[in-house]
């Protein structure tokens, strides 16, 4: 990583670029992980459901609920990626406004970026929550079938 420049305006430009680069790497990795986890689980459930149709099992309602939950997890992970992209742009705009000596405008875009960041974290937590709830639905289905057997 390069050393920060001495001049304040150059430092603002430097920070803008460094923040955007680091944030982009994190956002991409987190969203990809959430999409892969939920998408992989949904694929496994779909594969299992095809076998259940052959046996007309009582697992189907639980599997359907889990599939919807995993799909919601993918949706929230994708929303997280989109919202983080917007937040990243706002943080970049903050440093641009600082560079252009527009302090009031800088504060407004920083607040907006902060709110978008919080929303993206809520989307990430929602994605994980849907994964947990969907996995619990499958577990309840297995337990219900074991009690009935």
Explain what this protein looks like in three dimensions.
This protein is mainly alpha-helical and 149 residues long. The chain has one domain (35-148). It has three helices and no strands. It has helices at residues 8-55, 60-99, 103-148. Helix 1 runs antiparallel to helix 2 (60-99) and helix 2 (60-99) packs antiparallel against helix 3. The longest helix is centred in the first third of the chain and has 48 residues, at 8-55. The chain starts with 7 loop residues before the first helix and ends with a helix. The mean pLDDT is 80.
List SSEs in N-to-C order: HHH
Number of helices: 3
Compute the separation of the termini in Å: 62 Å
- The number of domains: 1
Mean pLDDT: 80
Q: Runs with pLDDT <50, length 5+?
A: none
Portion in beta strands: under 5%
Q: Round the Cα radius of gyration to an integer and report it.
A: 22 Å
Write a short abstract of this structure.
The chain is an all-alpha fold and 149 residues long. The chain contains three helices and no strands.
């Amino acid at each position: 990583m390069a050393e920060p420049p001495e001049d304040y305006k150059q430092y603002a430009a430097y920070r803008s670029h460094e923040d955007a680069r680091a944030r982009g790497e994190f956002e991409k990795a987190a969203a990809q992980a959430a999409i892969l986890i939920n998408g992989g689980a949904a694929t496994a459930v779909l594969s299992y459901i095809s076998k259940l149709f052959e046996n007309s099992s009582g697992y189907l309602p639980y599997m359907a609920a889990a599939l919807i939950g995993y799909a919601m997890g993918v949706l929230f992970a994708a929303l997280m990626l989109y919202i983080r992209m917007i937040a990243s742009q706002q943080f970049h705009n903050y440093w641009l406004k600082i560079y252009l000596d527009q302090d009031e405008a800088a504060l407004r875009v920083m607040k907006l970026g902060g709110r978008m960041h919080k929303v993206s974290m809520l989307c990430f937590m929602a994605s994980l929550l849907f994964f947990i709830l969907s996995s619990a639905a499958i577990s309840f289905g297995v337990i219900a079938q074991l009690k009935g057997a």
